[in-house]
Amino acid sequence: MGDKAAVAVRNVTKRFQSRKGEVHAVDNVSLTIDAGEFVSILGPSGCGKSTMLNMIAGLIPATEGSIELSGLLVKGPVHELGIVFQQHLLLPWRTILNNVLLQIEVRRLNKASYTERAEKLLRRVGLGDFSDRFPDELSGGMNQRASIVRALIHDPDLLLMDEPFGALDAITRDQMGLDFHHLSREEGKTVVFITHSISEAVFLSNRVVVMSPRPGKVEEIIPIELGRERHFELRDEPQFAQYTRHIRRLFERMGVFVEHRRA
Amino acid sequence: MKGWHSRLAVLSDILDRFAVLIALVALLLLWELAVDLGRIPVFVLPAPTDIWASIVKNWSALLAHSWVTLLETLAGFGLSVAIGIPLAFFIVYSRIFDRIIYPMLVASQAVPKVALAPILLVALGYGVAPKIIVAFLIAFFPVVVNTVSGLASVDRDTLNLMHSMGASKMDVFRKVRFPHAVPSMIAGFKVAIAFAVVGAVVGEFVGSRSGLGYYMLLATGNFDTPLVFACVVFLTLMGIILFYTVGLLEVALGRWNRTARIAQAAEAASAYGM
C-alpha cells in the first residue's frame, strides 16, 4: 500500500439516521486502489455500495475512518474526478455538446479550448453527429454515453461510476460496458465501478470487491486475471465462468442467493 | 382517383378540428330556441341574440369598463409576480422562510380572500387599490407555490453532480434550478392570471364606480339582464385572452421537450439579469 494509491479507504464506517432509526450502511471497509486500475464494487441492493461511492466523492461524510485520494484526505466534495450516475442527468434544455461543456463552464475553464476535445470524445463514443441534439431526441444509451463524455471532458484521473448502465437494456448494457472498458483504458483512467451484475463486474474489472448485504462489509477482493484486453468471447471462456461461479457461491453463502434444490 | 373514403376523411378532419366551435354554435342555437319556444321572460334568461343586441348597444361603455377591470387585473397579477417570485427564492434558499413563512402562507390560504374585500374597502376607499389588492391576494399563491416547487424539485444526484464539479450556489441556481423551474412557473402564472380577474371583479362588486363588476351590479339593479350577460361575456373573453397570452409565453419559448428552448431562454435571461 503505497502513499500514492489513487484511492485509499481506511476502516470506513457509515451510519445514518432514518425515520426507522439508525441505519448501519457500511461497516469497517478498507480498500486500496492503484492508479490505472479498474475496480468494481459488487453487491446486492442496499449493501451500501453507492454510499461508498458518495463517500469517496466526498458528497457525504464517513462516520468513522478516512479516505484519501492520491494522498489527499477527502473532507468535502472532491473536484478532481468525474462521476457517472445511473441516470444520465443531462440538462434537457442543453444540447449534448453544451451538456458536456457544463463541466467546463462550472469549472471556469476555457470553453473554446475544450470544445474540440468534447467533439473528439463525442465522435469517439459514436455521438459525432448528435452534438447539437437535445437529450430527449436521443436514446437512453446515447444519453449515457454523453454523460460519460461529460465525466471525461476535464481529463480527471479518477472516474466514479454508480451503476452507470443499470437503467439500460441488457444488449445496450453489454456493448456500453465493453466500449467504456476500452475508452477508460485508452484514457488511462482509474475507475471505481459500482454494479450489481456479477458478469459485468468480472468482465470489466482488474479486481472485484464483493460486498455483503447491509451493513456492507468487504466479503472478498478477487483479482480478475483475464488479461488487459477484454472481448465478448471472453464470456464463453471457462476462466470467466469460474470467476462468476465463485462469486455466485459467495452470494449463496451470504444468503443473497437461495438455490432451489431438487427433492 | 379520390374516392368517397378520402372525402369522408377530409370531412371528419374538419369536424375534428372545429368540434368545439360546432358544439358551441349548436349550444347557442339550442339556447335561442329554448328561450323562444319556452317564452322565458328576457329578464330571467335573455336569448343569445338579446345579449348580442345589448353588446352592440352598450359597446363603448362595455369597453370602457373592461379597460378598468383589465388594468386592475394586470396590476394585481403583476404585483403577485413581482412579490411572489422573490418570496419563492427566499423560501427555497432560507431555512427561516422555509420553516416559518411558507407554512404560514399555506395556512393563510384557508382565509377566504374574497371576504377581505369589504375590509380593504373600508381601509382604502372606492378607488382601484382594493381591487388590485384582492386580485393580488388571490393570484399570489399559485405564483409562489409553483415557483417554489419548480426550484426545489431538482433531484439529489443532479445537485451532487454539480457539487462534484465545484459549482457555487449561484452556478446551481443559474444553470440548474432556475431553468428547471421555468415551466412550472409559467403554469403558475396561467392559474394566477385567471384568479386575478376574479379578484378584480369581486373587488368591484364590493364597492366601486367603474369596471365590469360595477357595471354588472348597475345592470342588475335596472333588471337589464341582457347587459349582465354581456358583462359576463366580456369577462369571459378577457379571462380567455389573458390566459392564452400567458400561454403564448410558453409556446413562444417552446414546450418541455422543446422546453429545451424555454429553459435555454431562461438561462440566457438569468445570465444577463444576474
Ordered list of secondary-structure elements with their pairings:
The complex is a heterodimer of chains A (263) and B (274).
Chain A (H helix, E strand, L loop, with lengths): L6 E12 L2 E13 L4 E5 L6 H8 L7 E6 L2 E2 L7 E4 L11 H11 L4 H14 L15 H13 L5 E5 L7 H17 L3 E6 L2 H7 L2 E5 L6 E6 L14 H17 L9
Chain B lengths: L3 H14 L1 H20 L9 H10 L1 H35 L1 H14 L8 H8 L4 H24 L3 H9 L4 H38 L5 H10 L3 H29 L2 H18 L1
Number of domains of chain B: 2
Helix content of chain A: 25-40%
Low-pLDDT stretches of chain A: none
Biggest interface pair, counts? A-B, 22 and 25 residues
Q: Specify the number of helices of chain A.
A: 7
CATH architecture of the largest domain in chain B: Orthogonal Bundle
N-to-C span of chain B? 63 Å
The Rg value of chain B, from CA coordinates, equals 24 Å
Mean pLDDT of chain B: 87
Question: Could you tell me how far the N terminus lies from the C terminus of chain A, measured between alpha carbons in angstroms?
Answer: 49 Å
> And the CATH topology of the largest domain in chain B?
MetI-like fold
Q: What is the CATH C level class of the largest domain in chain A, in words?
A: Alpha Beta
Structural class of chain B: mainly alpha
Uncertain segments of chain B are none
Looking at the structure, what is the overall shape of chain A? Answer: globular
Radius of gyration of chain A: 19 Å
Q: What is the approximate shape of chain B?
A: flat
Q: Care to describe what's here?
A:
The complex is a heterodimer of chains A (263) and B (274). Chain A has helices at residues 49-56, 96-106, 111-124, 140-152, 170-186, 198-204, 238-254, and strands at residues 7-18, 21-33, 38-42, 64-69, 72-73, 81-84, 158-162, 190-195, 207-211, 218-223. Chain A is an alpha/beta fold. Chain A has 2 domains: 1-80 and 158-263, 3-Layer(aba) Sandwich (Rossmann fold); 86-156, no CATH class. In chain A, strands 6-7-8-3-9-10 form a 6-stranded mixed beta sheet, with helices on both faces. In chain A, strands 2-1-4-5 form a 4-stranded antiparallel beta sheet, with helices on one face. In chain A, strand 1 and strand 2 form a beta hairpin. In chain A, helix 2 (96-106) runs parallel beside helix 4 (140-152) and helix 6 (198-204) crosses helix 7. The longest helix of chain A has 17 residues, at 170-186. Chain A is globular and about 55 Å long. Chain B has 274 residues and is mainly α. Chain B folds into 2 domains: 1-39; 47-273, MetI-like fold (Orthogonal Bundle), CATH 1.10.3720.10. Chain B contains 12 helices and no strands. The radius of gyration of chain B is 24 Å and the shape is flat. The relative contact order of chain B is 0.12.
